[in-house]
Specification:
Blueprint: H1 3-14, E1 28-35, E2 38-45, E3 49-56, H2 60-69, H3 72-79, E4 90-96, E5 100-106, E6 112-118, H4 123-130, E7 144-150, E8 154-161, E9 165-172, H5 176-184, H6 190-195, E10 206-213, E11 216-222, E12 229-234, H7 240-250, E13 261-267, E14 272-278, E15 282-288, H8 290-299, H9 306-312, E16 322-330, E17 333-340, E18 345-350, H10 356-363, E19 377-384, E20 387-394, E21 398-404, H11 406-424, E22 453-462, E23 465-474, E24 480-490, E25 495-498, E26 502-508, E27 513-514, E28 517-522, E29 530-538
Antiparallel strand pairs: 1-2, 2-3, 4-5, 5-6, 7-8, 8-9, 10-11, 11-12, 13-14, 14-15, 16-17, 17-18, 19-20, 20-21, 22-23, 23-27, 23-28, 24-26, 24-29, 25-28
């Protein structure tokens, strides 16, 4: 290659010097040593370690400029994901080499490797990697530093894993202070959050009991997905995020993971016993120390149980919506006798004295006919002795009579009034805003993105008419109710609508959809127009 050609191609040609030939990772230039007309340079691959490369002396400045633009930090972060299973590595130990750090890493599936990091790496990235020292290399859970033993050049870090107990790791002594800073930047609830997730199926765990001890707390947990039980030991500092995590796990059902209500608290000498009531599976017991109960008692009223209540109002056999047969006060619990359209009968359980707002949102789901799922009208709700009689009316299938507690009857009246008021509200078209991209730290658990309600529109021309469909698909994870579809065609004198411009759907289950159809007849030829369809609904987020 001619000299002038090499000068022209230098940026593209010498950029390849910074790519590892084995894994294509971006490398960092560590050092350069001149040898007459050649430069011998050492590059560092985060996976394969130091690599020597040679290039002509006249291109040294070009290579140095190119090195400033190489994204070696991205390759370092990517290298901390296991090549075999994709799990994030924990650091088992660190050795100080000439110009770089050699990190012994291991994933929770037992795959071991070595990673190489320049010793002058940015402080932010170094902290992020040193946080992996404070993670257990057998399960990947965040651990707690118990003590540090300093030697001349190395330090021994003693830590406690909530699952595997005590462990120790060795790192260079000059990294101890920055490692402590990195550990302090891990969110307060990160240990508890990681502890309360099943290592087998990644399903949130439920806490059955808590025991206090000198070394911390012992959590006896169960996975609602596969009923696998486990015990976690962890020294805990109680903060608001930690209390929220523990309270949510304590008030979750052992069998389905739905949030429950507390009931029947009994204080013993060294513990507090109470029951939780799952809407589907009924009563379960919890045992916790008195000091933990005092923390949980303050946070328990703030738990949002409404999404779990709404999920319980679908049949657990066929996922069809449930309708109400009867409500009884039995053995200190409120029992709902419910049935789906396929004839599957079941019970739903609630504690007495639920807040009126919760009852109102609950009974909004029972204003639909069990035969046609059309909206029911409230004829009257009157007290009759120990209970109140509520009469609902379907225009097609007649009336339905319920005998329910007085506070439930009052909630049914309020629910009916709110449903009627919502029908009078015009649908509002809301502009869609692009959600910002959030990059989470390496030590954070990445949560799955939440879907939403999707609205699709389409038109089919059949003969001399237009069949316009609006498909409302519920991907939100919540049952949506009072779905109103409103349609308008412009110009109005060119498109005649056959039927009503507003159609109402009582509810759409999770993963389900409805496709109401509107028919237009054109009254003029060669007219450019527009059809606008708006959708509104209630989703209890």
């Amino acid at each position: 290659m001619a000299a002038h050609q090499a000068q022209e191609m230098a940026p593209d040609l010498f950029k390849k010097l910074f790519l590892c030939t084995d894994c294509a990772s971006s490398m960092t230039q560590l050092s350069t040593v001149p040898h007459h007309s050649q430069i011998e340079s050492t590059f560092l691959c985060p996976i394969h370690g130091p690599v020597k490369r040679e290039f002509p002396t006249q291109f040294q400045s070009t290579v140095e400029i190119l090195g400033a633009d190489v994204d070696s930090l991205g390759s370092i972060l990517d290298s901390f994901k296991c090549l075999a299973c994709g799990q994030v590595y924990a650091v088992s130990g660190i050795r100080n080499r000439s110009g770089f750090l050699e990190m012994l890493v291991r994933c929770s599936n037992g795959h071991k490797a070595i990673r190489y990091i320049p010793d002058n790496v940015e402080e932010g990235l170094l902290k992020q990697l040193l946080q992996r020292v404070v993670h257990c290399d057998r399960c990947g859970l965040p651990s707690t530093i118990t003590r540090v033993e300093m030697n001349r050049e190395t330090a021994r870090i003693h830590m406690s894993c909530p699952l595997h107990g005590s462990d120790r790791k060795e790192i260079p002594a000059d990294l101890v202070e920055i490692m402590k800073q990195a550990a302090s930047e891990i969110p307060e609830d990160a240990v508890v959050r990681a502890m309360l997730v099943s290592s087998d199926c990644q399903f949130p765990l439920t806490i059955r009991s808590i025991e206090g001890g000198e070394s911390g707390y012992r959590f006896r947990c169960i996975c609602p997905s596969d009923s696998h039980t486990t015990t976690r030991n962890i020294p805990l500092t109680w903060s608001d995020p930690v209390i929220d995590r523990v309270a949510t796990a304590l008030f979750s059902c052992n069998e389905c993971g739905l949030l429950t209500h507390g009931h029947d608290v009994k204080r013993r000498k060294n513990k507090v016993e109470f029951r939780i009531v799952c809407p589907i599976h009924g009563v379960m017991r919890r045992d916790i120390p008195p000091d933990v109960f005092d923390y949980i008692k303050e946070r328990e009223p703030m738990i949002d149980r409404l999404p779990s209540i709404v999920r319980s109002l679908s049949c657990d056999k066929c996922n069809m919506p449930l309708f109400l047969r009867d409500v009884e006060d039995k053995r200190g619990l409120i029992e709902f006798d419910v049935e789906c359209r396929n004839g599957h009968r079941a019970k739903r359980f609630f504690v007495p004295g639920l807040p009126q707002e919760t009852l109102v949102n609950l009974y909004k789901h029972f204003y639909q006919c069990p035969e046609c799922y059309d909206s029911l009208d409230l004829v009257y709700a009157e007290p009759r002795g120990r209970e109140s009689r509520v009469v609902q009316l379907c225009p097609v299938h007649g009336k339905y009579v319920l005998e329910i507690p007085h506070d439930h009857a009052e909630a049914m009246k309020i629910a009916y009034d709110e449903i009627q008021a919502d029908k009078l509200k015009p649908p509002i078209e809301v502009e869609e805003h692009e959600e910002p991209h959030i990059l989470e730290p390496l030590s954070e658990m990445v949560e799955a993105p939440q879907a939403d309600v999707q609205v699709l529109r389409g038109c089919n021309i059949v003969g001399g008419k237009f069949d316009y469909k609006v498909k409302v698909k519920n991907n939100s994870g919540y049952v949506i109710t009072n779905v109103t579809v409103n349609i308008v065609a412009y110009p109005k004198d060119s498109m005649e609508l056959a039927g009503e411009a507003v159609k109402t759907i009582s509810r759409i289950e999770v993963g389900g959809f409805r496709s109401p159809q509107f028919t237009f007849y054109p009254t003029k030829d060669c007219v450019q127009g527009k059809v606008v369809a708006t959708v509104s609904f209630i989703d209890f987020r």
